[in-house]
Amino acid sequence: MRVWRQLTDLVTRHGSAALITVHDVKGSAPREAGARMAVRPDGAFHGTIGGGQLEFRMLDIAREMLTAGRGPARIVDQALGPDLGQCCGGRVKILIETFDGRDLEDLAPLVEAEAGGGSFVVECRLEEGRVRREFASAVGDDRWTGWRETHGEARTPVLVFGAGHVGRALVLSLAPLPFAVRWLDDREDAFPAHLPANARAVRLRDPEAEIAGADPAALVLVMTHDHPLDLAITAAALRRDFPYVGLIGSATKRARFEKRFRELHLPDERIRALVCPIGLAGIVDKDPAVIAASVTAQLLQVRERIASRPPPTSSPAHTPSTSSPGLSR
Predict the structure, then answer these.
(1) Measured between alpha carbons, how far is 280 from 183 in angstroms, rounded to an integer?
(2) Model pTM?
(3) Separation between Cα atoms, residue 3 and residue 47, nearest integer Å
(4) Rounded distance, CA 33 to CA 149, Å?
(5) Pairing state of beta strands 156-161 and 179-185?
(6) What domains can be seen in the chain, in order of their start residue?
(7) pLDDT tens across 83-136, in order?
(8) 98 by DSSP, 3-state: which?
């Protein structure tokens, strides 16, 4: 969810809105720090902080704050087990803020940053009880005592070669998820008239150039209408160290392609890295929608694995405290 766009729209249409943010998490909780909801004065909302009693209680507080009018931010320190009977057992701090037309000018740069795509960081501090946000500076300040928030969406790039039945089903399956899809096919009129917002359709003219110019973090799916084209694209992809190279097909197709890859002098470790057949083990239904769901789950697993890797060792920049002193409970 583009939270600042959503919040601005709600303020413009309804006069005011609340923002509920999971500010901090200790132990097990329904959502991670940074999960957000935008709330209308009538209680309708967009987004989720995990559902259940926690969400219901925070919505009640947000509605009360909106009824009282634009005021200071609040933070609610909530134990999930003893207080709410939720079996997660952790503890969360929930930040709740209210906005009205006076805030639209301050919200505009955040809306613009969201529209640019990707994620961005803002530095936050309290001023007269309200949260002031500024874009994070490149150099940390040891005197700074606020906290930082990450906004926007860090989308994983995906290259999907082929706009056949499975390709179409896969692109639709990826539509609501944190992926940026580059969808390629060499045929005229291969693509549907309407595309998901996170997908871009491209007429494929030079497969090797596409692979050479791809983001090194891209996940590559090969499922064209032509086996020689599949072979050429897959071989080019395996020459690079992409986190995932998947080829649609059976174990028999894989064996035939492996023989050709060796003739092309591809290293054995890169050939072993190929995912073929694609999708989760144990799902054998060949309906395009089922294949797409299975492959989507596999890509999410790869994305999680990449995200869990420790960052490169370097001299760390100053990281301010994530605490937020002075917020009312």
Answers:
(1) 22
(2) 0.74
(3) 8
(4) 9
(5) parallel
(6) 9-153 (no CATH), 156-307 (3.40.50.720)
(7) 666 566 688 999 999 999 999 999 999 999 998 878 899 999 999 999 999 997
(8) strand
